[in-house]
Amino acid sequence: MTYRMRINQTFIAATLLVGATLGFDARAQAPSCELDRPVKFGGMNWESNLMLVGVQRFIVEHGYGCKTQMEQGDTLPMFAALQRGDVDINTEVWITQMQEPWDKAVASGKIKQVGTVFTGTDGWYVPRYTAEKYPDLKRAQDLVGRKDVFADSEDPGRGRIYGCAIGWTCGTLTSNLARAFKLDDEYTVYSPGSSAAQRAAIVSAYKRKRDIVFYYWTPTSLIGSLDLVKLEMPPADEKKLECIADPKCADPQPTGLQPYPVATAVNTDFAAKAPTLVEFLSRVSVPEDTLTNALGHMERAGLEMSEASTYFMKQYPDVWKNWVPADVAARVAQKLDGV
């Protein structure tokens, strides 16, 4: 055995001993990615998706040794890109908001669902200061007779319920719920021109301590950062919800809204080439309140999205470490300590 070989073997043995002492296998510190190209994430234009994509990219890069990139765009263009293979992963697919294109894509065999990343919720909210001012305002139907409290500035004789952005499916839900709770004679359901306008109207009213009632969903930074009360609704009834979701519903009946699973989907060819990464993605699941709290902190602290992803990983290690094997978690945690 040459002197150089003895030195190399001694170095390797010492490296493994140090790794064992520190609680990890040093040979596992340089993983080999399943792909010889970057893993391509679809980055949809909303907070929870962008934060979670940041978390997943960090894990894929430092835990699995892959390069990553993110293509950013709206929901349907990114969903089309997933089917073409221009992106590999859509971390959040709100299936109930795009049921028809989802069903067609799954039937085509071009995509597959690999997990449920969280369960979303929606409903009507009022600020806590409003709920404390009117302690018997607890349910959606308790809005009856209170149009003056939530007066419409453009039509003072009526109240205003802030719905969601023009063209969104939830606009139908809110309008039909208003009819179901017999509020349509007193209230106008107002649809802002965009989600930004919707948010701005809510935040402006909240900062000025104005009484406001509005539709919103979770997980979002707005719900996480403001002190709000969700108005109670009856138990969800699937048959009634079918009508509530129909723009042509003739006779909407009172019902609550169901929580809805939000899926992670991958391109089928990617799934075949990267089964280890798909196994990781299939385990990505976040409690809704955890995600809402993280997004609320992001809003209050004024964090950039990359900072929010880092905050999530440092604040909730017990969540993300459940997604990966111990050696992957060790590599990611080691890198995270230096961030």
Structural commentary:
This protein has 339 residues and is of the alpha/beta class. Helices cover 46% and strands 19% of the residues. It has two domains: 34-118 and 261-337, Periplasmic binding protein-like II (D-Maltodextrin-Binding Protein, domain 2), CATH 3.40.190; 120-244, D-Maltodextrin-Binding Protein, domain 2 (3-Layer(aba) Sandwich), CATH 3.40.190.100. The chain has 15 helices and ten strands. Helix 12 packs across helix 13. The chain is globular and about 65 Å long. The two termini are 43 Å apart.
Helices, strands, pairings?
Layout (H helix, E strand, L loop, with lengths): L2 H20 L16 E6 L2 H18 L3 E6 L1 H10 L4 E5 L5 H10 L2 E17 H6 L17 E2 L2 E8 L6 H12 L6 E4 L4 H13 L5 E6 L2 H5 L2 E3 L7 H7 L15 E8 H6 L1 H9 L4 H14 L3 H11 L1 H4 L5 H12 L2
Parallel strand pairs: 1-2, 1-3, 6-7, 6-8
Antiparallel strand pairs: 3-10, 4-8, 4-9, 4-10, 5-6
Helix pairs in contact: 2-13, 2-15, 12-13
